[in-house]
Each structure stands twice: as C-alpha cells, then as structure tokens.
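Q&A log
Question type: sequence-to-structure
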Amino acid sequence: MQYTCLIYLDEKKFYALSKDEQNQIHKECGEWHDDLVRAGKSPHGSALQPGSTAHTFRMQDGKVIMTDGPFAETKEVLGGFDTLECESLDEALQIAARFPGLKAGGAMEVRPHIVGNCEAV
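Response status: OK
Response body:
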C-alpha cells in the first residue's frame, strides 16, 4: 500500500531559527528520507520552495483565478512530501512519527493512496 506524507511547516517559526538550526533540521530530514529509500520504503519525495513561490488556482464565477502564494488561511504551508510503500497504515504512521522536522514545529499528514478509480460512493 502506498501512503503520501504531506509535510507542513510554520515558515515564520522555521525561518526564525538560526541558519545553523535550519541546516541541522534539513540534514536530519535528508538522512530520514535516505534511510527510507535504502529500506525500500520510499520511491520518491521532495522538499518544496517557500510558500511565497506558490501559485494557487481556483474557479470563481466560471473563471479561473490565480493568486500568488498559498491561499489557505493558516500559519502552516506545504513544505514537501514523501511517498511511502508500507505493509500497513500502522507502519506508515510509525515512520511519520520519526520525521525530524517535527522538532522544528512541523507537522506531517499521512494519507493512503486510492487504489483503482476515483469514484464517489
């Protein structure tokens, strides 16, 4: 079963850390991901550029509207993602709980992939 781990961070809090602290978190997160790749648990993952580089599209009154930056009214923005291949949800949750970015105030959301067609039920 595949799971996507969505990695969120409070950019204001993260960028308030010293450069050394930021780099230490980045290093630990990279090591966490590399361990998953070596164990055959992650086929891919990626960090994302800061939220200020985002472009968000929505439909409004039948027209596509683009706004710069993240649109959600929250302190946290999507900072990256990782795809896990696990035997169970429990295994995916155990892996997510070890994510080093949590120490910097980050959050990780784990969602199972849909197998087959997406259909309303």
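Response note: The chain has a mean pLDDT of 89.
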